[in-house]
Amino acid sequence: MSTAYIALGSNLSDPASQLRTALKQLDTLPDCRIAAISGAYRSAAVGPGKQPDYLNAVVEITTSLSPAQLLNATQAIEQSQGRVRNRRWEARTLDLDILLYGHEEINTQSLTIPHPRMAERNFVLYPLAEIAGEQLMLPCGGVLESLLATCPAGDLVRIQVQLDKHRDHE
Q1: In the structure, what pLDDT confidence band is assigned to residue 73 with cuts at 50, 70 and 90?
Q2: Residue of 33, 53, 83, 158 marked catalytic
Q3: CATH top-level class for 2-163?
Q4: Which of the residues 27, 97, 121, 158 is marked catalytic?
């Protein structure tokens, strides 16, 4: 089993509900189990035009799916929740990005791990640090703390939204 971290984001169609549904679907994937879920963070949209703020979180999973299989599964979840890919960085019902997969570095046409823009996104780094700790070792040999030091929280706000309602059995 490998540990993977996945960023979740939504700014359309009840973002909190979108994230809860995605978490439920991730937790029911064959050979996947949620280990930790960060709190919810509100951030300004990055992209074209005026968009609603995003709701973001990061989830840690353990999985025996390969990185490519996990990518296919996350894209299927996005699609099942109405994700439409017309323009880069447009508003969306759901965005799932694989941030890290074990200590692997992957660079293919369809998948780059670590996520290529992870280091510049406070809405990814702060929720990741919340569940993984600032001393998380990155595939490059550095630690998450060094990325946090160069990426201020800015307008990122942790908000009181319960994301793990789907885990009633625990």
Answers
A1: very high
A2: 83
A3: alpha beta
A4: 97
